Amino acid sequence: MGRPAKTKPLPTGTSRRGFFQRSGGAALALAALPAMALQADTRNSRGSAVFQHGVASGDPLADRVILWTRVTTAQRSAVTVSYIIATDPALVQVVQQGRVKTNPDRDFTVKLDASRLRPGTTYYYRFSALGQDSPVGRTRTASVGATARLRLAVVSCSNHAFGLFNAYRRIAERADIDAVVHLGDYLYEYGPNVYGSLRTPEPPNEMVTLSDYRLRHAQYKRDADSIEMHRQHPLIAIWDDHETTNDSWRDGAQNHQPETEGSWNMRVDVGLQAYYEWMPVRIPDVTKRRENQRSFRFGDLLELVMLEQRLSARSEQLTATVPTPFGNGFVQTGAFADASRQLLGTTQEAWLASILRTTPARWKFLGQGVMFAQLKLQGATLAQGGGVFLNTDQWDGYQPARDRVYDIFKGEATQPAVNNCVVLTGDIHSSWAADLSQDPNNPNIAFGGYDPATGIGSRAVEFVTTSVTSPGVNDPTGSTATLLRSINPHFKYINLTQRGYMLVDVTPQRVVAEWWFVDTVQSISNVQTFDVAFEVQNGNNRLQPSAQTTPPANPPALAP
Amino acid sequence: MQVNPTFSRRGASVAATAVLSLCASLPTQAANITFSGQISFHNDVVQIDFSLAQPATNVRLWTDSWQGGLNFDPLAALWQGAGSDFSLLDQVDDDDTVAPGQGFYDTGFSLPTLAAGNYRITVAAAFNGANGPLLSQGFNYGSEVPILLTEWNQPSFDPNANDQKGGFWRMNLSGVDQASVVPEPAAWQLLLLGLLFGRRLVAPVLARTGVSAPL
Fold it and tell me: Shortest CB distance from B104 goes to which of A77, A98, A111?
């Protein structure tokens, strides 16, 4: 597998990144301040030499959770790592302790699926090896039975080169959330100054080999803000494209050149090897490493389904050829209407349908990478062809596949409708709230349309979280957002400019999404602001404005 | 020279164990000897006796059967004969520096000098270590209900690979005079022991620890 012989051009075409760059997002990069680059990493006062990548937890189930760390050592032999799990921050009320091992073949990463835990319980843990202790971590198992409330922080697109993870730090400081959901683009593959210049990527080249992927993961895990977020909350993550490379699909990617970078399958293999080594995720089937879809149940309140949309079945993105002011768009004809094209694949579609139809949980979240709602540059009803769409990489480029998911929402001849579905999305470096309709520009409800004033006709809702650092659109007056909303009446909220995270508060009666923004990613800042909240009420399947929620009283203490 | 005994304290393997007890003694002169076999359960313990007629130098004992996680992660203990028991000299979990061909989780001993005497080396699945300084005290997992290796997640396994499910073991001995695999007590031996010493000895001490019957 060879290294790229030339510097990669910036992605072009109809990807969302191209859209953002043409819309002014690149100005953000020009404003970056390299002098600030090292500040974040100096804040990790809790680090030890052995455990310099911190600790992490993830994939909480009712009786178990993944605990993770990494040992840094110069030796080339096995290392035994001991661990302790307790119910108090001081690690006095010990519930488990034991030993695991790691070795160079695992890049000295440590992954433990700690079982026999109690549901809905906060635990504190610590690793020890080579005479040093790790920082104390905090995690929480999923609940069972009647569950009154759940709060999730939702993030995506954390580009180390593009800025500081201030959003991670704000999340780390919150004791009032149960888990962090990362919807992909946890790390980026590019070399220096290709996509972000505030911090220099390690290694200083595009990640292609196993060593490249491991070093890049290591750099991200050494970030002080990342360490704190992982240390305080369990992570539920799904990959998008950049965990391998840009605009990936089953058999290739926009940013993969076989002639210089080797076979795609080999690149996926090494990328996923590093991913599974370095991420606190549970591998569903070691013989099918690309099939990373998993589901997490939080009692009777929530079924969180995490979808794999890149490597297991996705068909290649088609080319958009209809000129628009934002670049080429496309219409839903020809290959775009080919029902054989896949985004999830038949196996995952069946799995998703089964879960949505059978879960006893009231709310069903689809955690996934690319925008589900239609995003048009020219509106039209389905009967008129549907209009001109923007992004071939999101569900718009796979409309028949999306229709099959709508079939689950709506119900079919022998299957009842599935209500209370909420799609959580990342990828697009901006914030959106949408009613989900197959024909949002058709006001005739009786014929499958949608009423933007009442939301009637919506089958589910979508909340899109902005990026942690990756650039959005320079739209300070909101004029671009206003234009997009005028074409796409199902969007109730669009913010194209801010970085941050989303807070999702779930109760049996409603789901509220709050958008929280940091003021900058170019320097260390403690400033965060609440922007807006939208909610969906039980049984309504449509959005309405909401307000900032009140955190629960007396949440479990953060890890010291 | 290699034998391939298949150990089990379960009744199905009694015949094989009996055969092994007759043929597994391998008198040599400072030879290299290799034993290999299969264990089935997480608390099985393989035992190999060896002796030195004279003080020896450069004695090496090592496994090379972990094979990158294809098989269980071994833990070896070296014991010295002490009357009817054995006393623990050392216990090593991981040492891949004893001989070429070892993997990260293989184990072994490099002994520059070793006095004449009778020794026993035990191989168990990590972290089924010795309970105390005497072999008769048994091993950590000795009181646990046996779990098939194929159904057991060894603490050192890799969750990303779901590995270490194989029961193959191989112990190499270099620089010893004579070596033999100690068979697990057969059912008739256990019955006889029960009659002679009382039932309390049979299950908790002998069967679980793998200490051979003093017959």
Answer: A77
Q: Does ipTM exceed 0.85?
A: yes
CB A200 within 8 A of CB A37: yes
Chain centroid to CA A208: 22
What are B's interface residues with A at a Cβ cutoff of 8 A? 68, 73, 93-97, 104-105, 126-127, 153, 155-156, 158-162
Q: Rounded to a whole number, what is the distance in angstroms from the first to the last CA of chain B?
A: 27
Name every chain A residue with its beta carbon within 8 A of the beta carbon of B156.
Answer: 80, 99-101
Tell me how far the alpha carbon of residue A243 is from its chain's centroid. Answer: 11
Rounded distance, CA B15 to CA B37, Å? 15
Q: In this structure, what DSSP letter does residue A93 have? A: S
Report pLDDT digits (tens) over B63-103. Answer: 999 999 999 999 999 999 999 999 999 999 999 999 999 99
Contact A101 B105 (CB under 8 A): yes
Concatenate the DSSP letters of all residues of B19-34 into one string.
HHHHH-EEEEEEEEEE
Which of A101, A273, A289 has the most B C-beta neighbours within 10 Å, making it the best mutation to test the interface with B? A101
Chain B residue with minimum CA distance to A103: B104
**pLDDT above 90 covers what percent of chain A?**
90
Looking up tokens 């209407």, which residue turns up? A337
Q: pLDDT of A144-182, one tens digit each?
A: 999 999 999 999 999 999 999 999 999 999 999 999 999
pTM (predicted TM-score): 0.89
